[in-house]
Amino acid sequence: MNELIAVDRASSLVWEHAGDFGTVRVPLNKAVGRTLRQVVRAERDQPPCDRAAVNGYAVCSASIPSNGVLHVTGLQRAGRAPLEFPQNDGCLEILTGAIIPSGADVVIPGERVQRQGDFITVEPEALPEVGAFIDRQGTVRQENSPLLEPGIVLKGPVLAVLAANGLRDVLVAADPSIGVFAVGDSLIAVDDDGEEGLAPWEIRRSSEYAITGALNDFGFKRGQRRHVANVSHEIHNALAEELATHDVLILGEGGPFGAKSAVADALRDLGVNILFDGVAQEPGAAFWFGVGPEGQRVFGLPADSVGITVCMRRYVLPLLKRGQQRLIGKPPRVALAEAVHALKGLTRFAAVGVEHDQTGRALAYPRNIVVSGEFGSLLEVDGFVEVAPALTEADKEREVVPFYGV
Amino acid sequence: MNELIAVDRASSLVWEHAGDFGTVRVPLNKAVGRTLRQVVRAERDQPPCDRAAVNGYAVCSASIPSNGVLHVTGLQRAGRAPLEFPQNDGCLEILTGAIIPSGADVVIPGERVQRQGDFITVEPEALPEVGAFIDRQGTVRQENSPLLEPGIVLKGPVLAVLAANGLRDVLVAADPSIGVFAVGDSLIAVDDDGEEGLAPWEIRRSSEYAITGALNDFGFKRGQRRHVANVSHEIHNALAEELATHDVLILGEGGPFGAKSAVADALRDLGVNILFDGVAQEPGAAFWFGVGPEGQRVFGLPADSVGITVCMRRYVLPLLKRGQQRLIGKPPRVALAEAVHALKGLTRFAAVGVEHDQTGRALAYPRNIVVSGEFGSLLEVDGFVEVAPALTEADKEREVVPFYGV
Q1: Which of B90, B137, B317, B378 is packed most tightly, with the most Cβ within 10 A?
Q2: What does this protein do (chains A, B) (predicted)?
Q3: Is A327 an interface residue toward B (CB < 8 Å)?
Q4: Mean pLDDT in runs of 10 for chain A (406 residues)?
Q5: How far apart are CA A201 and CA B214, in angstroms?
Q6: Which candidate from B81, B191, B202 shows the least CB-CB separation from A79?
């Protein structure tokens, strides 16, 4: 095996080669979950006009007669054109969000006045100062000011911002096309029971479900599985097709690149430049990454299921997000609730369940994974903590480490 | 307005009426993100046979000659039928996961022996005890033992468990059909600019995007928007159709039930029993809930966008998950980083951004929402904390409160 490179270095190399999957314009009702790739600006001032901040009465304060009695001549509703403001001794009932009709200079909250039929009585101490209870045009935002920056994911509240600003379609990141590729005929398909059921030495093909499942969990829908026999020219032809079709290619069969002669030969022939072959980590050391002649990103995942999950979460998904120019924060940090045995020279990804204690502290409880090759081991796991090689066991309980959720 | 009921009581009433949306059988490759509704049992023992735990040599320890030299007669690969074990002075090379051929009783790790051509030399001290480096059949799990319980969400690693156990299809929770309903003609559609653009008093219809967006964020895809004019018989007919079509109906126009005469009359006529009309909370007090004659759940959301987001997250989504019989944990608890002004008699849902400090503590920083009716206010918000009415401001910074992410 080649020399293993450090996790941070591998992560940087992957990140640097994320590229850009491009953009696509979609109608607003198809935009949920996509990554925004444009600046969204305010369609108009916010509020777009002077508006009532409460339910009450729009009044011209200088026109209130000495007895305080005003005739209510109409109801100004939100979303409706302004009514004509009445002459002397008149006022309008007004609802929250309605435009202030020209001529009114204050809104008196409804509970401050006495109403009888179409008349209200305003006591002098109930009259607010001029301009009160009016949300002034443009005080929250001005027309054309930026509302949303590229890189955010379009979720519930954000979609409403787009709608409120009249965007019927929106520029978003294109979804990368992702190939999930495996070689060999020693594994049994999920729907194959043979003639007499599964022989005890036979193993079902399951890794590809973990890979496409992880892609789906993070919103990447365009993963296509393909499986070819272990025959050199078939591998070569299939990989050539995959590279021509996909932005990202994930080989899900395990093992270092150097040991996979037919695959390695084909990828080299096809101009894929391997940037690293093996990472100083446990699990998932047999993880490699390369870049094709047109910038295609090619990942080789380890064979064991826990290693697959770690590599998908730590390397593949960040590249996919980065290629969409998504804004990505640092991973949250959690406190180790129990000692985790650090490894000399290897970063350890330890499976943990996370619980928040009574002080709001996120505590990571290590989960023992009996058999790394068994996905069932991951069922009680919320994610992985990254334990650096340098840590010594004595310090573990007080360590605070990055956390990657699954 | 009716008497407001407490948040916990409202939450319990909603929860109690979640019902069950039923089940559906889907092929494995369509199961991602769905809620499991069956017990999944081990297809066979795990491991399904005695298997090599390392790469090395399968040996019969009693047959090693005094010079320690063994003839390597073949390679036992994983997934392949067992080779015939060689007679005297023979052994088999074996790879991790391969079946132990009958006749071998120990695996010697590859690095412990010297190999020259087809021969290895085993020094006495390098020979492990009988049975070493063999994963015994059934030691992890026995055939037919339960692997997965109903109620979990099928994500990446779990899908691989299903595949590994030969489930080509799986029983999952049905997706509820959800109607999103609004009445009135005072709001302007996102794609309507009129002849001369939007008038300053006009308001775009945006709440429905926040509602369907929130549904999508949490994996509920079958939300259908409908909008009818404010005409009594049209409202009645439309609501009758909606109740006949959907499991859940969300009215997204705001205001207390008691104040919505045409909608309230229609729902009463159609046999919807209103369980509460108004919750002692801020924002979102004007939130109501009822149950139709066939158990349809009917929500009335408040008008303001922040209130909508809170009510979707705190009441509607838990009901949708519960109706799928999903396992749901308690909300995580976070520490308030700054004082939050509690409200007398009202539960306060305060918008916060959450950051993990250097000790792994999740700290909630209150975000000022300038205008509750504006979704843009939610962009820097990770979710809401629930501040009980009883809290006094002096205690806030040390309070640890439930958190609901958006």
Answers
A1: B378
A2: Catalyzes the insertion of molybdate into adenylated molybdopterin with the concomitant release of AMP.
A3: no
A4: 86 97 95 93 91 94 94 92 93 94 96 94 94 92 89 86 91 96 80 81 85 88 84 94 97 75 91 96 93 97 85 96 92 88 88 86 81 54 88 62 91
A5: 47
A6: B202
